[in-house]
Specification:
The complex is a heterodimer of chains A (about 575) and B (about 250). With about 575 residues, chain A is α/β, with parallel strands linked by helices. In chain A, about 35% of the residues lie in helices and about 20% in strands. Chain A contains 16 helices and 21 strands. Chain A has a 5-stranded parallel sheet with strand order 7-3-2-11-18, covered by helices on one side. A 5-stranded mixed sheet of chain A has the order 19-17-12-20-21. In chain A, strands 1-10-9-8 form a 4-stranded mixed sheet, sandwiched between helices. In chain A, a hairpin with a 2-residue loop joins strand 20 and strand 21 (about 550-555). Chain A is globular. By secondary structure, chain B is of the alpha+beta class. Classes of the chains: A alpha/beta (about 575), B alpha+beta (about 250).
């Protein structure tokens, strides 16, 4: 086995991984590994924008980081950790200005300053954007700066498992996809930035590569999964492919209609209307469809036609293209067919109480970006806050580690043992998969996705979720017996997709268990059998640990104290 | 709608043995070529190799050749392959022998042209990225995070808008110059240079540096104005036009 040694290894080359890698490589020997070329990362698909209280518009002059923090905490249904939120919103104007300084082609106001648009749940127009392809613009900018600085990339390397030695993280085993060899990346600091895991659901706006590999690997070395029951369902995904139709479309004035021609948001959020937060709009649409006021019982209309050709071409060209390529609808002429779909994972790799932001309970292991749960989004994320999270905490973790100085590695001997043990487990697994006689992985994946879609979407209840748990438990057993050729290792994506499924199975199970445990409704977790929020018992983070007999649920306190807990109403 | 679709697919083990394999895939409304590739991997051969990520025409992973036209697998609806309007005047791409292709009924799937094949539809893009780095397409000013940001008018921003949305898919390397000159920087790489040359925020010095890097025999001067790149680009970047613009800029400076 090839061995590479670093001061720190970053897994993931989306916005969070790139920003961390850029910062750390100023002084340290760092490797950034990614299963796809950096610019193929899912960050590039983000459309709407990134939040920062810049106050560039006359109607946004009064905006401040504190108000941004308040909106975020309120939107999170009081589950976000308030100190982390404050840090993020205070850094926000700086991080956006830094992006501009690196060359990001932001859209501009007449004044020449960065343009900002209104977004759901925000008191002021604070979402900075580059047309409706903001993520693409940011991702390419960061990649450019990484190339400039000579950041060391290992592209098309797949993280399989982490290993620890002497009670701290010691490195990871990755599959070099092009050669089919396993490689050990040894480092006393590992930063996981592997992105979201929406593919646990069948209908998701996420890239096909968003499978939670960092989450699975961290869980297998004993790090808990946090707040997994909070899954954001985006109200507007394209009928058929579930490709995202950005909130920017509503920010620009897009209107929602049911099959009776009613602007139904009047009933559900008379003040905020189409710009109410995502969970509320998603439930409203789902209700309309369930009560028979959808089109073909499956979708509603998002109407942009009144905006006119020029405004659509100028502000929403990407949305127009997507609607035309993937649904055959030109939004200049006709409304877009949309329905809710999985979009964002608020939960993720559990973080340590009172640690550095992103620090896990395993010394030396950190998690940032969508794979992590810091928690800045609590029970519900506001649009435009996650691009912000990725870069703010990417930079933060880099600066923090550099300030702390290089960590001391475990002893050579124990690292070697741990590394060989990890490799042995993987080899054994692949041998089994090769000789097993059970199901094909894709059968299991289909069933998992359907189950999550059906029982863990915008409305949840006990009997449904118990059904889901039974099915997922059965699939876990089936998964042990999957059959897939593994002797051919070079460029074998069939094998990689099975390794991804290994991670997704645990994520699905934790999501169901967390959701069953949480007997209240909060943010994205909406239970028809417990329709109210219960702060007395459940204003806590859900922490799921690997225990002797399977998953064990514990809790972690929420960091409160800056904003007073209130009822969430729009 | 038809119930199934036949495909004739280029297979290459990576050791130089090329064959064309036929597959029949059940159709669903809205099914794209990428969906079909996954169907083949899931149901016929799990080692069948192709790249993918976003499935939404934004990440640039899935470039392949469909019925002799370079395209993104995820953006191409199966039902539209035989009827869609295709770019005209493309060179003939040759990957291997397929005497048995039934043009009317079978969709032919091959890798991207002018890049070495690693396996099946997966090509080696090392040179693509190497030349990208050679152009040094990035801002060289020291970045900082002190407000206010530097200004740019909406018009100045519009001047680069088309160029910034390149997704690095490599379709434009179908250019005949790429086929014959392995040192040619390439349409994407030159378009990327133009993206910085036309950015109002660039310094004179930086502009000069970029011009020096691209004004060479294997750079702008190698372009023979086929404009194949403009026609196949899925994002309307128009690299050929960008190369022309660099030429003009060069004349202006003379
Ligand atoms: C369609 C869409 C639109 C969005 N729009 C917005 C928006 O407008 N505003 C906003 O704030 N947020 C938006 N979001 C959310 C936001 O884009 C993401 O949360 C954010 O980009 C995640 O960034 P990341 O760096 O954490 O992960 P990603 O960008 O997903 O990167 C993950 C990285 O990890 C690597 N990786 C994963 N697994 C492995 C492995 N096993 N081995 C090696 N490498 C691995 C991948 O290769 C990739 O480089 C949107 C999300 C979606 C789905
Ligand atoms: S210029 Fe167009 S074809 Fe070439 S890499 Fe960029 S997006 Fe692809
Ligand atoms: S999969 Fe991203 S462009 Fe096709």
């Amino acid at each position: 086995m090839r061995i590479e040694k670093f001061d720190a290894v970053v897994v993931g080359a989306g916005l969070s991984g790139l920003r961390a890698g850029l910062e750390l490589s100023r002084e340290w020997n760092v490797g950034v590994i990614s299963k796809v070329y950096p610019v193929r990362s899912h960050s590039g698909a983000a459309q709407g924008g990134i939040n920062a209280a810049l106050g560039n518009r006359p109607d946004g002059k009064e905006d401040t980081p504190k108000i941004h923090a308040y909106d975020t905490v309120y939107g999170s249904d009081y589950l976000a950790d308030q100190d982390v939120v404050m840090y993020m919103t205070e850094e926000a104007p700086r991080i956006v200005v830094e992006f501009e300084s690196m060359g990001t082609p932001f859209s501009r106001l007449e004044s020449g300053l960065i343009a900002q648009r209104p977004f759901g749940g925000a008191g002021f127009p604070r979402t900075c954007y580059a047309g409706d392809r903001t993520g693409h613009a940011l991702l390419h900018t960061l990649f450019e700066q990484c190339v400039r600085q000579g950041v060391k990339f290992y592209n098309e390397y797949f993280l399989v498992d982490l290993f620890k030695a002497d009670g701290q993280i010691a490195g990871l085993i990755a599959l070099d996809i092009k050669t089919g060899e396993f490689v050990s990346f040894r480092a006393p600091n590992v930063i996981l930035a592997t992105g979201g895991f929406g593919r646990v659901y069948k209908e998701s706006t996420n890239a096909l590569i968003n499978t939670g590999d960092g989450n699975g690997a961290a869980y297998r070395v004993g790090v808990p999964m946090q707040d997994m029951e909070f899954v954001q369902i985006h109200p507007t995904t394209l009928y058929g492919s579930n490709i995202l139709i950005s909130e920017g479309a509503r920010g620009e004035g897009g209107l929602l209609y049911n099959s009776k021609g009613e602007r139904f948001m009047q009933k559900y959020a008379p003040k905020a209307m189409e710009l109410a937060p995502r969970d509320i709009v998603a439930r409203s649409i789902q209700t309309e469809i369930l009560e028979g006021r959808g089109f073909e019982d499956a979708y509603v209309h998002l109407d942009l036609t009144h905006l006119g050709k020029n405004r659509i071409m100028e502000r929403l060209p990407g949305i127009r293209e997507i609607s035309m390529y993937f649904a055959g609808v030109d939004p200049i002429e006709k409304p877009i067919p949309i329905l809710p779909g999985q979009h964002y994972s608020m939960g993720g790799i559990g973080t340590k109480y009172n640690g550095d932001y992103g620090e896990t309970e395993l010394p030396g292991l950190f998690a940032i970006g969508e794979c992590s749960c810091l928690s800045v989004h609590g029970a519900n994320r506001l649009g435009g806050n996650s691009l912000l999270e990725t870069s703010v905490f990417g930079r933060y973790i880099g600066r923090t580690l550099l300030k702390k100085g290089k960590s001391i590695s475990a002893s050579e001997d124990s690292i070697q043992k741990a590394e060989m043990a990890a490799l042995y487990i993987i080899e054994e697994l692949l041998d089994k998969w090769n000789s097993n006689t059970g199901k094909k992985p894709n059968e299991i994946k289909e069933k998992m996705g359907e189950t999550m879609n059906r029982y863990l979407s915008v409305y949840r209840n006990q009997p449904d979720m118990e059904k889901a748990l039974k099915i997922i438990e059965g699939l876990q057993l089936d998964f042990k017996d999957i059959n897939i050729p593994t002797t051919e290792r070079k460029l074998n994506w069939g094998l990689i997709r099975a390794l991804e499924l290994r991670n997704m199975m645990d994520i699905a199970e934790a999501t169901v268990r967390g959701a069953i445990w949480r007997k209240e409704s909060r943010g994205a977790h909406w239970r028809t059998d417990y329709p109210t929020r219960n702060d007395k018992e459940y204003q806590v983070h859900t922490m799921i640990y690997p225990g002797e007999k399977g998953m064990e649920i514990k809790t972690k306190p929420v960091k409160l104290g800056i904003f007073e807990t209130k009822e969430r109403k729009y | 709608m038809k119930e199934t679709q036949k495909f004739l697919v280029y297979r290459n083990s990576g050791e130089g043995i090329i064959r064309y394999e036929g597959y029949e895939v059940p159709l669903k409304p809205g099914y794209t070529i990428l969906d079909a590739l996954f169907y083949i991997q899931d149901h016929f051969d799990s080692t069948f190799a192709f790249r993918y990520s976003c499935r939404g025409a934004i990440c640039g992973s899935c470039g392949i050749t469909v019925d002799k036209i370079p395209d993104l697998a995820c953006k191409t609806q199966i039902s539209a392959v035989k009827t869609k309007r295709n770019p005209i005047g493309l060179p003939e791409f040759h990957f291997g022998e397929h005497p048995n292709w039934d043009k009317e009924n079978e969709i032919l799937i091959e890798p991207l042209p002018n890049m070495p094949v690693l396996k099946d539809l997966v090509v080696n893009m090392d040179n693509f990225w190497k030349f990208y780095v050679e152009v040094q397409p990035y801002f060289t000013r020291d970045y900082n995070d002190v407000a206010p940001e530097s200004k740019q008018s909406p018009e100045e921003m519009n001047a680069i808008e088309r160029l910034v949305y390149c997704i690095a898919c490599g379709l434009c390397w179908a250019c005949p110059v790429n086929a014959t000159n392995p040192h040619y920087l390439g349409p994407m790489q030159l378009a990327k240079a133009d993206r910085f040359l036309r950015d109002s925020r660039i310094s004179d010095e930086h502009e000069k540096e970029i011009l020096e890097r691209v004004l060479k025999d294997d750079g702008v001067l190698a372009c023979e104005k086929y404009f194949v790149c403009n026609r196949v680009c899925p994002r309307g970047v128009m690299p050929g036009t960008a190369i022309n613009d660099i030429r003009k800029k060069m004349e202006e400076r003379k």
